[in-house]
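Continuing from the previous page...

OK, I double-checked the sequence for 1-acyl-sn-glycerol-3-phosphate acyltransferase against my notes and this is the correct one:
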Amino acid sequence: MRYKKSKSLVTIPERFLTQRNRLFSLVGTSLLSITGWKVSGQIPDMKKLLVVLAPHTSNWDFVYGMALILSLKIKIYWLGKHSIFKKGVTRLLKSLGGIPVNREDAKNTINDVLEIAKREGGILIGLSPEGTRKKAEKWKSGFLRIAQSMECPILLVAIDYPSKEISFRELFHPTGDNQRDIECLKKYYKDFIGKIPEYF
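Thanks. Re-ran it with the corrected sequence; updated structure tokens here:
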């Protein structure tokens, strides 16, 4: 296995690295540095991974998440609400791995993800398990269905505002019991605090 150790204390398999304009990397690194955020952990060297980041309570999560992706030069496809892909930025967001998601058309989203996984081989797919930054009493099970369809584990990533740390943590293997898995993950992420705690 070939890994690269980044300055942010994250170990990343070379298969998940990409070459982007150096300006992108500089912008991402500078934003994390100026705001005092740090990144830690390891991305396992597996062919396919679904990456979930929680708790998602603010648009700032997206900003810091993108800064991380740019800074570490991670090749990752991420799912975002279709409404953020507005005229003028759609091309940029897609070039950075963005996949527009219409929540009313979950089946096509899964098909799109599977098609990318088939085409790319080694692939990281990132999303928020809550499906919204507002308080969600009930999490949607789409991310579990995607992991099951991709036949891959889920890499749990936590964003914690008090410590200003984004950490790549452990692997979660879906059991097939979606409700049980969701309750397990909600309990796991209770140890981390989002920007707006009452939204989680």
